[in-house]
Structures are given as C-alpha cells and as structure tokens.
C-alpha cells in the first residue's frame, strides 16, 4: 500500500492524516495495568479523533471468565477514567460494537481455537479484512507459549491475497520491554518471536520514543543552525541522562526483584535517548535511515575497562520522603530482605567516534529519588572567561541545553547574563523554551501515536532487534560485574538523588550531577 | 486580568502590555504567532473565543480589530486581556471607527510580536482581493470563510480570482475529515474500479463544491456529479459508483458517519462536525502555502460538472 498509489493522496496535501485501515487489535493481558490505564484509553482516543476506521475490532484475551458484554462494560469504565479526550457516547458505542472477549490461558488450545473463530466473525461482520495486530502485554516468559499457540492455530500465518488489490492482510506483533534480561536471552526471545512473525512485523514498544519531546530532540538538533555546530567534543563537556521516579516498588515486587534499575530503564529508555542525542544526522526520517544511525552510534559505545569506578548502584532505605514515611526496599512487602537488586544505577559511558571523543555520557535511573523527572542535559565546556575577572569564584558560563522528556515536556537553555544593577556581575539564568504548556496538554499521548504507527505499519519510532542487542552488549558487563560483588548495593535516603557513590562517580571527573 | 483603555492610541496599548508583563500578569511562555482577527461589532466574541481555544495549541497574541462605522467620529477603544482571562493567549481588542475603520499595518505594528509570523483571519467572509488588503499584505497566512457570506458561491469565485499562496478558507478546512476518510476508503478498494462519484449536499455550499472539485482534479477520468440533499450540515455524503458494488460515506446528522460497503452491514465512524476553534487550530498548525487548496480553487472548481443530478436513493 504505497502512499503514491492513491491519486487522492498528494504529497503536498499535508492536512490529510493517515488513518489506519481495517483491522483487529488483539490484546493479550488485557486486564493488566498497562492495558487498563493506557492501551484501551488510547484506542478510544484514536477512535474519537477519527483516526480509526469504521471496520475495526478489539479482542481482549485473558483468564477472566467474561462475556463480550462484560468486557465492554469493564472497558468502558477504564476508558471513562483515563481517556484524554472527552467521552462521547456515540463514538464509544460504535467502537465497542467491535469489542470481543476470549477467555482462556496462554496455553489453552480451546481458547486459541475460539480466538480464531472470533477473528473470523469480526472479518465477516465488521469488515476487518483479516488484518491482525497481536499486542503482547504479558510477561516475556509467556511470549513463547503465546507465539507458539498463534502459530499452531494458524492465526499468525499470512493467508490469502485480495484478488482485486493484490494486498495481503497483515500480521503484526507488538512486544513491550523487557526484551530479555541479557544478550543471550534477548536473542532467544527474538528467535521465538521471529520464527512466527517476519522481522518487519515485530514492533518493540518503547513509549518514551512516542513522546513529543523525544521527537522534538531531533527537530532541535537538526532543524536549527544553532546547536549542531556545537554538538561535539569540541564544545560539549559531558552529557547527563536522568530518569528519576519518586515512587518505590509498590506492587511490582514480583517483576522488579532480580531485574533492577539498570535492566528496567537504562538498557532500553536511557540508551535509546543516548542514541538519539549522540547519533549523526540521518539522511531522512524513514525507519531504515534512523535505525542505521542509532545502531551505528550504539555500536560505537565503549564499555569502560574499570567497571567499578565507572558505575554506582544503590538501594533506597526507609525514612521520610516529602512528608510521608516510606519503607526501604528491603522492607517492602513480599521481598527478599537480602535482595541485592539495585533500585538506583548510574553508569559512565564513552562513545568512540570523532564527534564524541573524550566526552563522558552519564546515565542514571532510580526509584524514590527527589522527584519524578526524565531529562537529557547536554552540558557545554566553560567559557574562557577572560573579561569577567571580578566574578572570581562565581560559577557561571557553563551553558547547558536540557531536554525535559517528562513531566512538563520542553527544553531549557542555561546562559550567563548580567545581574541588573551591578557593575558587571554575571550569573547563569535559565531560558525555558516550552512551546506553551498548553501545547502538551493537547498533544497525543505516547501510546496513541505508537498504536497508530503500528496499525499504519510505520516503524521509525520502534527499536529494532539489532539495537536491543547493542544495548545488552553495553549493559551486560556492568550487570556481570555487579553480580559478582558480595556487598549490598549502597543504601540511600528516600527523596535524595542516590547514594554517595553516584556523586563520587562524577566528582572523580571534577563534575557534579545537575539537580533536575 | 482585563484592562480597558477608552479612546486610546496603539502606543498606550503597547505600554500597557509592557507594564502587565513587568507585573507578572503576562506569562513568560513563548508565543509562536500573532493572530489578527478582523471582524465587526457584535460578532467579535465568538471569534475571540475560538482564537483563544486555538491558542491552547498554538500560543499566540490575538489582536482583534473590530471595525465600526467609517462615518462616525474617528476613535479607538482598546481592551487588553491577559492571564486567566485570556487562557493561553493574550487578547488585545481594538474597536475602531471613523478614519480608522480601514485598519492597516500602522494601526497594529507596535503591538505585533517581533519576528513571529502574522496570520490574519476574517471570520465573517471573504474580502475582495484579500492578499492585497493592507492587513493581507503583511500576513503570511490569510484565512477567510466563504460559508459566512450570504452568497457563498460568489465568495468562492472571488477567492479563486484573487488567490495567492498563503490564502486559505475555512470551507476547505471543514473538509479535512471527509477527505481523510475518503482517501482511506479509496485505498481499500482502489480507484481503478470507479465509474463515477456523486457528492450529495447543498449545491450552494462552498465545502460541497470544493470536495467535488478536489475529487475531480485528483481523478480526471471519473465523472464527478453533485446531488442536492438535505441534512444538518451542507455536505451530506459521497457515493462511489464502482464495479463490484457501490460504496457510500454519509453523515446525514450528528457526529457519526455511516459507511456502506458492498456485502457488508453498515459501519459507523466518528466524524464530528468540527467547531470553529478546531478548524482554526488546524489552520494554524502549518503556515506554509496550501498549494493543493490553490489548485482545487483555481483549476478544480472549473473542471467538474456543476449541474445537479437527482440523488440516487440508497
């Protein structure tokens, strides 16, 4: 379905959005947190914005013993609670007419048989055209079972061709992180998925990449004259990428223990952000070009030889945070009190390219930190400061471009400016470039964009398997090093910015973490 | 906060803006454009409300020029709304009459945002030669509304005669959802099976005419007809007569469109009638020239057969 084939789609006609063609979206794990809070509301929002076709079906697959009607009633509650756009009865009724529920376990042959029947029924009654997207919102250990069953029951097979248009209905699969827990397991997982689906039909969701600001990073870098000439080792001192959460583990005990902050966040989100920050300019925004630049820069990432001095890890302790008493990690309910899983991790990486020679990239991620924030800070070298002698000791002139990914998406530029009224005092001030906070309110939620991209079959925002492999290549040595340590991760106070070793990591290089 | 400035000058308005900014009543948010709204007494509130809503997505300074009686004594009254009273925008209303009733650049130049593009919007119709009017000349984008005129077809012709890149009309914007759905539907069945297309709606409506013109221009070998049909909105539906069964997309009422495909039960799809604010928001999203609109207006309108046929019942 190439865009030029339709004479009604003129390349210059930029008002026309692409809306998804007919199809069915099948959610495995539909009663999970993500499906309830994000996925189904996003589907409704897409429908409400007129971006879903009339011929559209949604199938929930789960263990609950629900009828179609019970599923619709439950989904309505979720949508009304979480949808971004206003609830419209007509739109809902139209969308919900294509909702079905299939009850069963992931290894239940009968259930997959029923799934096949329901898919056929939707094709017949709703005109969904045999197009199927399987969304696996389930633990990775269940991937093999589900993919296997889909294969056995012929649900993932490319079947027939439309005699008139020559189009083949698609079969796509969406998987969520974690993509394995190390390089080997990532490869195994990939094999499981790719024996059933074609590589181009596998969409790995990293919802960060659907965020407006992450895409704005590309605009900031490549649509401006100002930044790119300075975006290199000649002017950049170092880069800090932070993803902090103010909450603890709460109910995710089972998932988190044994995984830790590095695998949970650094391997996927932070290394993707690093790639977008550091990559060369792609020759176009098409998926292949973007992926090859990201892959290139990830493969140039050097793993430090002295892992101990290039990393830090910690576990949050109990105490007071922002006015409430919170549990330490080891005291959280249902936890191994001797767990060595880290809730904070920081690593220092370098990129062996001419552009980034000698520029450290510091990545940190953690829970129970000072506040919830994700940002990329590109910190420039200090100005030589030949004129402003009177300011001795004052800290100024180190420019920084900070891209705030969440919350309050936007960017700031830190520049030195004269203090009013004084002779020639200078201090740093922050210039905030948000495109108006109101803008982000109406900008589509990341999941909406990603789901639509999957339905349209447009992969630029989704990491490819090669990128996943590169990320594990970078992280595995750290994980192996940490696994051999006998002592517990260093405790840190809740609401702080991590353990002392994290601060030492930068202090060793004569730098400090920004306070986000 | 609302500041009234009776019988005033633009310089005083500019001073008031600086003062409000110092007091902290004007936010430090970046603004991306100046939106000039040219309207008449009694009609300004509806336009300003739409502009404020559009400013939620595109933070802007709104300058509403309300042109009164040219024969009255020359006078300007201004009002500045900022902060909570203006939403994400700041709104400056200039009520002008007498010699000032023909607004030009000098009236507003002191209060336009530096560097940012200027968009001028005439919510009440289509002025003659819009791109050469004093405000049209300084605008990157000129937005008119043919359907607000009493003789919309004539307004459309007027627009076509003087069309310059940067001119745009809300009767075209109102078609975007229709065009999006139509493009998507034709992708499903391919255009080579088409015999002819009938656009159903009010024959005098500019949106209906533009839709037919767009289809005819893109599909030169498929005859496009128009059929008079009644409904809530001027455009009611489009019927594609084709080998293998007809396809029809129609929205006789409400926000749901009905899609009839051969051999299938009717499908419904969300296609809300869009508010003025939603259309304006779309207009402000891109400030480059809409060349497709230009082609449809200047070439497409002349090409399709404008004589109305009887609507075929479904």
UniProtKB/TrEMBL annotation, chain B:
InterPro entries: G6PDH_assembly_OpcA, OpcA_G6PD_C, OpcA_G6PD_N
Position of the signal peptide: none
Domain Glucose-6-phosphate dehydrogenase assembly protein OpcA N-terminal: 51-161
Pfam families, per database record: OpcA_G6PD_assem, OpcA_G6PD_C
Location of the Glucose-6-phosphate dehydrogenase assembly protein OpcA C-terminal domain: 165-297
Protein name: OpcA protein
Organism of origin: Galactobacter caseinivorans
């Amino acid at each position: 379905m190439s865009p030029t084939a339709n004479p009604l789609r003129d390349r210059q006609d930029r008002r026309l959005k692409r809306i998804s063609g007919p199809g069915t979206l099948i959610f495995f794990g539909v009663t999970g947190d993500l499906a309830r809070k994000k996925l189904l509301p996003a589907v409704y929002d897409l429908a409400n914005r007129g971006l879903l076709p009339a011929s559209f079906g949604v199938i929930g697959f789960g263990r609950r013993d629900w009828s179609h009607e019970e599923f619709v009633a439950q989904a309505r509650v979720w949508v009304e609670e979480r949808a971004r756009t206003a609830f419209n009865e007509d739109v809902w009724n139209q969308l919900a007419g294509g909702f079905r529920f299939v009850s069963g376990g992931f290894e239940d042959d009968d259930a997959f048989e029923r799934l096949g029947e329901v898919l056929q029924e939707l094709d017949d009654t709703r005109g969904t055209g045999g197009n199927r997207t399987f969304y696996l919102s389930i633990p990775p250990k269940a991937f093999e079972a589900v993919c296997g069953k889909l294969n056995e029951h012929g649900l993932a097979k490319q079947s027939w061709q439309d005699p008139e248009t020559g189009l083949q209905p698609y079969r796509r699969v969406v998987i969520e992180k974690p993509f394995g827990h190390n390089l080997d397991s990532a490869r195994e997982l990939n094999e499981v998925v790719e024996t059933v689906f074609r590589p181009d039909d596998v969409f790995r969701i990293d919802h960060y990449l659907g965020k407006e600001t992450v895409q704005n990073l590309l605009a900031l870098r490549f649509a401006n004259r100002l930044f790119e000439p300075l975006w290199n080792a000649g002017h950049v001192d170092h880069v800090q990428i932070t993803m902090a959460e103010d909450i603890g583990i709460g109910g995710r005990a089972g998932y988190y223990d044994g995984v830790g902050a590095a695998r949970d966040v650094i391997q996927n989100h932070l290394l993707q952000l690093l790639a977008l920050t550091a990559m060369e300019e792609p020759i176009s925004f098409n998926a292949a070009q973007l992926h090859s630049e990201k892959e290139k820069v990830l493969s140039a990432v050097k793993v430090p030889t002295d892992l101990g001095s290039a990393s830090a890890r910690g576990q949050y302790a109990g105490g007071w945070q922002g006015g409430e008493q919170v549990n330490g990690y080891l005291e959280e309910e249902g936890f191994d009190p001797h767990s060595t899983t880290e809730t904070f991790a920081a690593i220092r990486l370098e990129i062996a390219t001419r552009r980034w020679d000698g520029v450290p990239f510091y990545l940190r991620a953690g829970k129970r930190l000072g506040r919830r924030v994700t940002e990329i800070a590109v910190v420039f070298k200090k100005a030589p400061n030949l004129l402003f002698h009177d300011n001795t000791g004052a800290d100024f002139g180190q420019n920084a471009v900070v891209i705030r990914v969440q919350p309050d998406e936007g960017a700031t530029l830190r520049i030195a400016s004269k203090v009013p009224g004084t002779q020639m005092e200078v201090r740093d001030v922050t210039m905030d470039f948000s495109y108006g906070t109101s803008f982000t309110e109406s900008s589509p939620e990341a999941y909406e964009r990603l789901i639509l991209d999957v339905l349209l079959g447009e992969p630029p925002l989704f990491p490819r398997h090669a990128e996943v492999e590169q990320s594990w290549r970078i992280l595995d040595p750290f994980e192996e090093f940490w696994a051999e340590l006998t002592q517990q991760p260093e405790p840190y106070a809740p609401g702080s910015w991590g353990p002392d070793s994290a601060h030492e990591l930068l202090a060793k290089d004569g730098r400090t973490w920004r306070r986000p | 906060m609302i500041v009234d400035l009776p019988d005033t000058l633009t310089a005083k308005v500019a001073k008031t803006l600086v003062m409000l900014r110092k007091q902290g009543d004007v936010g430090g948010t970046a603004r991306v454009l100046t939106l000039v709204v040219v309207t008449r007494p009694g009609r300004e509130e509806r336009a300003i409300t739409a502009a404020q809503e559009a400013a939620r997505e595109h933070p802007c300074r709104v300058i509403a020029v309300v042109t009164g009686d040219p024969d009255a004594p020359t006078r300007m009254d201004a009002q500045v709304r900022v902060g909570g009273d203006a939403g994400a925008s700041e709104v400056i209303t200039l009520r002008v009459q007498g010699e000032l009733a023909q607004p030009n650049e000098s009236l507003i130049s002191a209060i336009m945002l530096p560097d940012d593009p200027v968009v001028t919007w005439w919510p009440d119709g289509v002025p003659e030669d819009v791109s050469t009017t004093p405000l049209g000349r300084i605008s990157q984008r000129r937005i008119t509304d043919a359907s607000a005129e009493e003789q919309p077809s004539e307004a459309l012709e007027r627009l076509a005669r003087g069309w310059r890149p940067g001119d745009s009309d809300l009767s075209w914007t109102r078609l975007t959802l229709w065009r999006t759905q139509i493009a998507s539907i034709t992708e499903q069945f391919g255009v080579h099976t088409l015999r002819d297309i009938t656009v159903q709606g009010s024959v005098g409506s500019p949106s209906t005419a533009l839709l037919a013109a767009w289809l005819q221009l893109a599909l030169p070998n498929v005859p496009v007809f128009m059929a008079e049909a009644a409904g809530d909105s001027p455009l009611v539906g489009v019927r594609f007569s084709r080998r293998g069964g007809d396809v029809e997309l129609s929205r006789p009422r409400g926000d749901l469109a009905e899609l009839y495909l051969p051999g299938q039960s009717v499908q419904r799809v969300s296609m809300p009638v869009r508010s003025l604010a939603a259309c304006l928001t779309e207009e402000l999203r891109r400030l480059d020239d809409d060349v497709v609109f230009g082609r449809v207006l200047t070439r497409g309108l002349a090409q399709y057969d404008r004589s109305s046929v009887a609507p075929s019942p479904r």
